[in-house]
Amino acid sequence: MNAPTPVAALAPTVKLLIGGKFVESKTKEWRDVVNPATQEVLARVPFATQDEIEAAIASGKEAFKTWKKTAIGTRARIFLKYQQLIRENMAELAALLTAEQGKTLPDAEGDVFRGLEVVEHAASIGNLQLGELANNVAGGVDTYTLLQPLGVCAGITPFNFPAMIPLWMFPMAIATGNTFVLKPSEQDPMVTMRLVELALEAGIPPGVLNVVHGGEMAVNALCDHPDIKAVSFVGSTKVGTHVYNRATLAGKRAQCMMGAKNHAIILPDANKDQTLNALAGAAFGAAGQRCMALSVVVLVGEAQKWIPELVEKTKTLKVNAGTEAGTDVGPLISCAALSRVEGLIERGIAEGAKLELDGRKPTVAGFEKGNFVGPTIFSGVKPGMAIYDQEVFGPVLAIVAADDLDQAIEFINANPNGNGTAIFTQSGAAARKFQEDIDVGQVGINLPIPVPVPLFSFTGSRASKLGDLGPYGKQVVMFYTQTKTVTARWFDDSTTSHGVNTTISLK
């Protein structure tokens, strides 16, 4: 949450959404939205004032009075329309995302598509928001539950998935009958705002979805405001811990998906070519800027001899602007990110890791000002080294050696993070042992990035997550609703009265 930088450029301004209208902020604090491949200023994003944030929350509170009573079928049809609009505008959305975030166009489409899957799930809300009924639990008594919305909810999203993660949040919150205030990343809000425009076009009523922009002040305002009932966050561990503590202290529900250090175990019996392809793609795709990126490979036994082949496979990846055909690795999001990743590579060398492939300062013709780091591989990595202990969030892969599967599992379980992990093997027994013994929330078997589809819940664990319920799937319906239990007995004229009953029994 860096301090905003005043700018005097005449780039277009990103608007706030309050009460169904896109409005120009009255703030004096602005930040440039910069193309990370060219340093071109694409837009200016405002750091909303306290009054503007208050207005957005008030709009959501007012809209909740009617939206919570809107028929569930009406809500579902809005998201049926919304998923159609997203599909029709996929190319435009991907182009916007690539311009401001740097991903390759195919990866940008993937970003939008994984969010679209949650929108499709939201359209099934009629089957998801079902209560329970027990008939005649006592003499003429029925008990049933209602899953009712909470009120105004808030979402704080990161720069690395500016389409997918907002689509994880507001569709499910709104489909379950809540209203929403979204604070996108100030680094790349343009594709998020286009998705918001399409959501209004799909029929989301005024005030049901609101958007504010900003940094630490906006985050704190959403965590503190008494009319915000729940806060969802995806981002760094430092900020996520702050959000969780501040929001829960204020009596709110909170779910915070945070940092990671994702490992994959490679057993010698794994299919070598398929495994090497999977490792290179998962480690270096999106320039390593994924919370589920594969950042550590644990080579077991004879698999330690695969390092030269992994290096050669990685050398085939093309570093270029995301708009260029055939690009595999685009730029990092900012100059600050570039400096940080290069600094961590230098620390890796200084702390004794072996630099197998150096991706610093690649030559990218036509994009010399871009924030580029090529794929980088270290071997001999150990805990205590910065490249292992920190989440690099760049195209840097750490290789660790292990004698056997037990040692590899023990090594992974000693890491505090628990977002995702994987094993590559042709042994069903080894895979089963791994899935049972590993202490990580999301497990891949011959899949390097085990992010579940929305029928299931995102289940990161340990230091990668604060809060009991995940950001989509069945768990998020519980997060965005309050369970109300009703116990009822109806009498008719033929019912015989048994007089006053002063016991707790329902008989």
Automatic annotation (TrEMBL):
Keywords: NAD, Oxidoreductase
GO process annotations (BP): L-valine catabolic process; thymine catabolic process
Top-tier EC class: oxidoreductase
Protein EC: 1.2.1.27
The keyword Lyase belongs to this UniProt entry's keyword annotation: no
UniProt keyword annotation of Repeat present: no
Single GO molecular function: methylmalonate-semialdehyde dehydrogenase (acylating, NAD) activity
Highest taxon of the lineage: Bacteria
Domain Aldehyde dehydrogenase: 22-486
PANTHER family hit by this protein: MALONATE-SEMIALDEHYDE DEHYDROGENASE (PTHR43866), METHYLMALONATE-SEMIALDEHYDE DEHYDROGENASE [ACYLATING], MITOCHONDRIAL (PTHR43866:SF3)
Family: Belongs to the aldehyde dehydrogenase family.
The name this protein goes by in its record: methylmalonate-semialdehyde dehydrogenase (CoA acylating)
Organism: Simplicispira suum
